[in-house]
Specification:
Helix content of chain B: 40-55%
Shape of chain C: globular
CATH topology of the largest domain in chain C: Aldehyde Dehydrogenase, Chain A, domain 1
Radius of gyration of chain C: 22 Å
Oligomer: heterotrimer
CATH class of chain B: Alpha Beta
Structural class of chain B: alpha/beta
Distance between the termini of chain B: 32 Å
Largest sheet of chain C: 7 strands, mixed
Shape of chain B: globular
CATH class of the largest domain in chain C: Alpha Beta
Helix content of chain C: 25-40%
Number of strands of chain C: 20
CATH architecture of the largest domain in chain C: 3-Layer(aba) Sandwich
Chains: A alpha/beta (279), B alpha/beta (319), C alpha/beta (480)
Strand content of chain C: 15-25%
CATH architecture of chain B: Alpha-Beta Barrel
Strand order of the largest sheet of chain C: 14-15-16-13-12-17-18
Largest interface: A-C, 35 and 41 residues
Radius of gyration of chain B: 19 Å
Number of strands of chain B: 8
Strand content of chain B: 5-15%
CATH superfamily of the largest domain in chain C: Aldehyde Dehydrogenase, Chain A, domain 1
Structural class of chain C: alpha/beta
CATH superfamily of chain B: Aldolase class I
């Protein structure tokens, strides 16, 4: 009998897979209490590195054409399709669901990427406008990505929730820091491996595993994070994030599990441009 | 009379250098100009300021008749009105000039002189007014005739066709030639006919072109084309003379003509002069208003300011 | 008279009837404050007392919230949307009818020139009601799902710089979307809001739909912290905005914030220079610079800065400072003694930090609060006058060498409300507009507003938009 080669679950920062700079890990068990893995216990400095990477990637990703971003999101779906089995196995192990249910979740997660891939070049039409001002001016409003978004993914369904958080945020040109679910982090790291082999530029998505309690306070207070998807936070954690986030007026939103263009526009700004019309 | 020496050296006068010069002028944003003139139009001029402005504006009027049906009789009454606009009130100043067609200059001059109006110059429209569509020889003759008949001011038209087709050099040369014909005998006003140039960028360019060629005044319009002296056009021309002064040290005059019919309109023009070119231009030697009916509105306003109630057109003479 | 001196042309104040004392407007009636306290509001141009105004404490805010809640559940949320819209149309019309009265009162209480209150503030306020009136029965097309719902009771806190216009920006969308309102005008400028209460009465607006409580920051915090408030809309300083965000953390309250700014006004060498000068003037001296989106940082391309500044200074010397009620006044009074002190304090730091100050000669009145139009040249990014919102007629001039540098400097601020760009080159306008991190970009114009045009900031300049379809989102819960 062959001994399995077990995977080391590391962080995903700026396209690299480093261990936590703190050297810490935490022990993760499966649904039956059996040891599963030692994912990294991310530190405040790891988070800082994520923010630096995400900020640096923002300008390039944000100025990529919507067509280009759409193709890259679709490419992520393609890569995930090829790794379906691994995602299924991890979901079964983490969540204790049947392979059939896990398979359905993976399929849904992949389809979610495809759905958002199609939104990249349509969201401006949905949330942009030309405004008939009372004067000789051409006036239009366009939605724009707002910058660096920290995403607290909800627990179960573990993979689908990651994609529900990530896809709408990066579709518009934001860069993201995904705080993997403390209890179900494995899908996040495997997703990172899919991302690393897709065409996604380094730094657009960064993934950190660790203790949510700590991550909330670090992310909430970090002045170079522009917004938080707080879907995975408890009401107490949300309050903390909101209190800390007030310092730089982070945009903080929570969502149910449904995919919606509102998830895209919630992490966008509206820019209105005026110009005279004359000869 | 402007000092042509001071202008030489800004360009060498070749069409290429003129084009280059005009192209380098800053662009005009029409909407911005309109917004600014709209604000200046809200200036409220009352009491002593209004009295002062009306009398100044009367002194700036180029009292004009430019009709195919002009007759010696019409010109005589116009001359009388020019010298003493209000026969009942000797405190009303004479107008700036009277403006007539070439063949009416002589009679206008003699009539003015007969009425004690030696101080009122006669302006003649010239150079195949209003279209400007004639050979340079005809334009020269036209101008010489007017000066010989006693015109002290020549209101020439530019060749708009040449301007619009890019023959900047031709426009420039014609102005220069007429400038030479005028010599020190006549003041030269150059009519841009802004209603045919259409854009404010063109107004700015044509203004500079005329000033570089030696115009004493730049004038908006013939009065035969609408729109004529709109506030944005006058505004851009006032900016041009202001900035040209900074470059050359020469103060060029501005004359809006056409469409200014009420005291309110005229005072708005004076506000533009005051706040764009500056107070130095608030003088008949640097600002004129080409008009006819306007004068009577001034007189009625004057009566209102004096008597405290509104007058009637029955109390001002129709000349 | 040798020069064209404009004789005084004061707008008559006979049109307004200022009462000596005002109550709170709660449940459709003016009532005496439970607090028993009153405060005075003064004319900042003369320091004369205009009126005594009721001070609302917690008990008064409770009454207002109760009235608004009751009006919401019993009347406003049950009324057909089209009928709701008609009330807004009525209000718009009455504002137009009484426009001059509002304009004069605004200039008296605020100190702004009558030209601006008459031609900008009040007409735009009426336009806001007219625009939003038409939305009332079309909300299913507002991009918030098929059946979007109002939050309920909106607590609205507005600033003193555009008292009536900010009231309209807040009240019109709130009512159109079916919310009821508890509004607190600014402490120094309550009078037009109280006159608006009369308009609500004339329009027959059901009692309790709009409640107006006057007071100070403490009154405002009672509104923010009130459990009966579902929605908070605030316009004011970034500092207070952050405090509100903190205060509502963990609650279900929805919040929109319109906060401060330090807008860059970028002028390229190929700009229409004369109109750019006008735009700079309008950008910083409109409303005495008491404008959150004021173009307070002029970024001018270095190779033609001298030419531009010469024209700018010449134009500044034409600014007519004085009696706000004079129709020819361009720059009125600073709204309050404390604001004047703040302008002085930050501006003085400009002197200390080595920037060069210039103001045209102007005679400031003896009484009242005044500050001359001022520019600082030789300013660097690190100076306080380049970073902090002065909220006064003070412009900081910086230079740049390349478009990239202009963008970097423009975006180098925690604010992101507005920005200006001046160039005759179309592609450069779009290039610049794309890169500026600000909610409103004025290209070859500045300080233009319209009810159809969304307004609001990036970064620390706020949350959400006001105006246009985007502005409705702040007052609606998405439908399914």
């Amino acid at each position: 009998m062959r001994i399995d080669v077990m995977k080391t679950y590391k962080l995903f920062i700026n396209g690299q897979f480093p261990r936590s700079e703190s050297g810490r890990v935490y022990e993760l068990s499966d649904s039956k209490g059996k040891f599963l893995a030692n994912p990294a216990h991310g530190s405040r400095k790891d988070l800082r590195d994520c923010v630096v990477a995400a900020r640096a990637a923002f300008s390039g990703w944000n100025s990529a054409t919507a067509y280009n971003r759409g193709q890259i999101l679709y490419r992520i779906a393609e890569i995930m399709e090829g790794r379906s089995e691994q995602f299924v196995a991890e979901i079964v192990a983490q969540e204790g669901v049947t392979p059939a249910i896990a398979k359905k979740q993976v399929a849904e997660a992949i389809d979610t990427w495809v759905w958002y891939a199609g939104w990249t070049d349509k969201i401006s039409v949905l949330n942009g406008s030309t405004n008939p001002v009372a004067g000789p001016y051409y006036n239009f409003t366009i939605p724009e990505a707002l910058g660096v978004v920290a995403i607290f993914a909800n627990g179960k369904p573990s993979l689908l929730n990651l994609v529900n958080g990530l896809a709408p945020v990066i579709a518009s040109g934001n860069t993201a820091i995904l705080m993997a679910s403390e209890k179900f982090p494995l899908s996040a790291i495997t997703l990172a491996e899919a991302l690393a082999t897709s065409d996604l530029p380094a730094g657009v998505i960064n993934i950190i595993t660790g203790k949510t309690e700590e991550l909330v306070s670090w992310a909430g207070s970090h002045m170079d994070i522009d917004a938080i998807d707080a879907s995975g936070l408890t009401s107490k954690q949300l309050k903390q994030a909101q209190e800390l986030g007030a310092e730089n007026l982070k945009r903080i939103h929570s969502f149910d599990g449904k995919a919606s263009p509102l998830r895209i526009t919630s992490f966008m700004e509206s820019k209105t441009v005026w110009h005279p019309v004359g000869i | 009379m402007i000092d042509l020496k001071a202008i030489e050296g800004i360009t060498n006068g070749s069409e290429d250098s003129l084009k280059q010069y005009l192209r380098a002028l800053p662009p005009v944003d029409q909407v911005g100009v309109e917004a600014r003139t709209a604000v200046l139009a809200t200036r409220s001029i009352k009491n002593a300021s209004k009295n002062w402005a009306i009398d100044l504006a009367i002194r700036m009027v180029d009292l004009t008749t430019l009709e195919g049906g002009d007759t010696p009789g019409k010109i005589k009454t116009l001359a009388a009105k020019a010298v003493r606009p209000d026969a009942t009130d000797p405190t009303v100043p004479s107008v700036g000039a009277i403006c007539v067609y070439n063949d009416m200059v002589k009679i206008a001059r003699s009539q003015l002189d007969a009425l004690g109006g030696q101080h009122v110059p006669v302006a003649a429209v010239s150079t195949a007014f209003p279209s400007g569509r004639a050979s340079i020889e005809v334009k020269i003759t036209d101008t010489k005739d007017a000066i010989a008949a006693g015109a002290a001011e020549i209101d020439m038209v530019i060749d708009r066709g040449a301007f619009l087709s890019g023959q900047i050099g031709k426009v420039y040369e014609e102005i220069k030639i007429i400038r030479d014909v005028c010599g020190d005998k006549a003041h030269l006003k150059v009519i841009l006919e802004t209603g045919e140039l259409v854009t404010l960028d063109n107004v700015r360019k044509a203004s500079y072109l005329a000033m570089l060629a030696g115009a004493d005044f730049i004038k908006t319009s013939t009065g035969k084309i609408s729109p004529a002296a709109t506030s944005p056009v006058v505004f851009v021309m006032l900016e041009a003379v202001r900035d040209f002064y900074m470059i050359s040290g020469q103060r060029i005059g501005v004359k809006p003509a056409g469409g200014i019919r009420t005291t309110k309109d005229a005072i708005k023009q004076l506000v533009l002069v005051n706040e764009v070119a500056g107070p130095k231009w608030l003088d008949p030697s640097l600002f004129r208003i080409g008009a006819s009916a306007l004068l009577n509105d001034f007189l009625m306003q004057r009566m209102k300011m004096r008597d405290g109630y509104y007058s009637s057109p029955n109390y001002v003479t129709l000349d | 008279m040798s020069n064209f001196e404009y004789a005084p042309a004061p707008e008559s104040t006979a049109i307004v009837d200022i009462k000596s004392e005002y109550g709170l407007f709660i449940n459709g009636k003016f009532v005496a404050p439970k607090s028993g306290k009153r405060f005075t509001t003064i004319n900042p141009a003369t320091e004369e007392v205009l009126a005594k105004v009721a001070y609302a404490d917690l008990a008064d805010v409770n009454l207002a919230v109760t009235a608004a809640r009751s009006a919401f559940t019993k009347v406003w949320s049950k009324m057909p949307a089209a009928e709701r819209g008609k009330y807004l149309f009525r209000i718009a019309r009455i504002l137009q009818e009484r426009a001059r009265e509002f304009a004069v009162l605004e200039s008296l209480d605020n100190g702004k020139p009558i030209r601006e209150s008459r031609d900008t503030d009040i007409p735009l306020a009426a336009a806001h009601f007219f625009y939003h009136a038409g939305w009332a029965d079309k909300l299913e097309h507002a991009g918030m799902g098929n059946n979007p719902k109002p939050y309920g009771v909106a607590g609205q806190i507005i600033p003193w710089n555009f008292p009536m216009l900010m009231l309209a920006w807040k009240v019109a969308p709130a009512l159109a979307t079916g919310n009821t309102v508890v509004l607190k005008p600014a402490e120094t400028t309550p009078l037009t809001a109280l006159l608006f209460a009369e308009v609500c009465q004339q329009a027959g607006l059901p009692a309790g739909v709009v409640n107006i409580v006057t007071g100070d920051g403490v009154t405002g915090s009672h509104i923010v912290n009130h459990p009966g408030i579902d929605k908070i809309a605030f316009t004011g300083s970034t500092g207070v905005g952050k405090a509100i965000a903190k205060a509502v953390a963990g609650t279900k309250k929805s919040v929109t914030l319109e906060l401060g700014g330090k807008a860059a006004n970028i002028v390229y060498e190929d700009a229409p220079i004369d109109e750019a000068v006008e735009g700079i003037i309008n950008g910083i001296f409109f409303n005495q610079g008491h404008v959150c989106c004021a173009g307070s940082r002029l970024l001018v391309q270095e190779n033609f800065a001298d030419e531009l500044l010469e024209k700018l200074k010449r134009r500044m010397s034409l600014i007519r400072v004085g009696n706000p009620l004079d129709k020819n006044t361009d720059l009125g009074a600073i709204n309050s003694a404390s604001q004047l002190a703040r302008i002085r304090e930050i501006s003085d730091s400009g002197d200390l930090e080595g920037a060069e100050r210039w103001s045209p000669a102007c005679n400031l009145p003896q009484k009242g609060f005044w500050y001359p139009p001022t520019i600082f040249t030789g300013v660097s990014q690190s100076h306080r006058i380049a970073r902090e919102e002065i909220f006064g007629p003070v412009l900081s001039v910086l230079t740049f060498r390349t478009p990239q540098e202009a963008i970097e400097k423009a975006n180098n601020t925690p604010y992101g409300l507005s920005a200006g760009v001046w160039t005759d080159k179309g592609s450069k306008i779009l290039w610049t507009a794309q890169r500026l991190r600000a909610g409103v970009i004025w290209a070859n114009t500045f300080n233009k507003f319209d009810p159809t045009s969304p307004f609001g900031g990036y970064k620390e300049s706020g949350w959400g938009r006001e105006g246009g379809r985007h502005g409705l989102a702040g007052y609606l819960k998405a439908g399914k």
